[in-house]
Amino acid sequence: MYPELKGKNALVTGATRGFGREIALRLAREGCNVIVNFRRSKSEALNVVAEIEKIGNGVRAVAVRGDVGSEKSLHKLFEQIENEFDSLQIVIANAAFGVPGTLMDTTSRHFEVTLASSARSLMHLAQHAVPMMKGDWGRIVSITSEGGQKVLPGYGVIGPAKAALESITRYLAVELAPRGVVVNGVMAGPCFTRSLSAIPGAEELLENAACRAPMQRLIDGEDVAKTVTFLCSDEARMICGQFIFVDGGCSIAK
Ligand SMILES: NC(=O)c1ccc[n+]([C@@H]2O[C@H](COP(=O)([O-])OP(=O)(O)OC[C@H]3O[C@@H](n4cnc5c(N)ncnc54)[C@H](OP(=O)(O)O)[C@@H]3O)[C@@H](O)[C@H]2O)c1
């Protein structure tokens, strides 16, 4: 438990399922009020809100629609957040949308949509959120994958978008440290979620990761959520612009 997280307001993008859902639930268990962002899946978002309310430690949860890839939509999302909360301390940039495939076959439109939702979104989230952190105490955590560093099948556009996200994370870490905002990321290993299942070759990727992982299993959402929560805590306050690998060791094993 991290008592300093109690009463903090946290935005988790893409919190309807997968990693985002687990992160939202864990932050709520720590006593954070949670803004459960979704793009399409309203009923799943409301289910997460209901689960948070069941935790019953006085935390608030609200579901707020917003496409992180659209500047206009993010503007509206923050208008709603400002209506509900007078401040915001934590942003988890979890949502990503990427068109699977190769660079040779992609279109400008697919490239732009992927970059907008998976990388540029972090810049806009920070631009909106940091003034709400009031120069006091803030945390931003981004979620990336091995595809930003290594060439994986089907990641021709998603990989470069994740590389951009990682770079934006580091630049924000340096820009925002003097303002009391700690920015870091989690490099998550493969995990069977709806997004991953849309990528051709996902089954092989998962099998390969499971075979390589020294920990002898694939990660789950809770593994990611625990590390994200640690990065939000004061225990991690001197970690700046880093990515913690949560992959059971598969990235270091052959
Ligand atoms: N799964 C893996 O193996 C893996 C590994 C490393 C990193 N990651 C990263 O972890 C993050 C979460 O992925 P996941 O695997 O947990 O995916 P997931 O289970 O498919 O969930 C994706 C979530 O993002 C939301 N979303 C998608 N596009 C959005 C947009 N433009 N604006 C707002 N919300 C949006 C979805 O909501 P709606 O349904 O409402 O659209 C959903 O809540 C992503 O950044 C992903 O790249 C995943």
What does this entry look like structurally?
Helix 4 links the parallel strand 4 and strand 5 (138-145). By secondary structure, the protein is of the alpha/beta class. It has a single domain (3-246), classed as Rossmann fold, CATH 3.40.50. The longest helix has 26 residues, at 108-133. It is globular. 44% of the residues lie in helices and 15% in strands. Bound molecules: NADP nicotinamide-adenine-dinucleotide phosphate.
In short:
It contains 8 helices and 7 strands. It is of the alpha/beta class and 254 residues long.
What is the CATH architecture term?
3-Layer(aba) Sandwich
- Say what the CATH topology is: Rossmann fold
- Give the termini distance in whole angstroms: 35 Å
Rg calc: 17 Å
Features:
254 residues; alpha/beta; Rossmann fold; seven-stranded parallel beta sheet; 8 helices; 7 strands; 44% helix; binds NADP nicotinamide-adenine-dinucleotide phosphate
SSE blueprint:
Elements: E1 9-12, H1 18-29, E2 33-38, H2 42-55, E3 61-65, H3 71-84, E4 90-93, H4 108-133, E5 138-145, H5 158-176, E6 181-188, H6 194-197, H7 202-212, H8 221-232, E7 243-246
Helix pairs in contact: 1-2, 1-8, 3-4, 4-5
The structure holds NADP nicotinamide-adenine-dinucleotide phosphate.
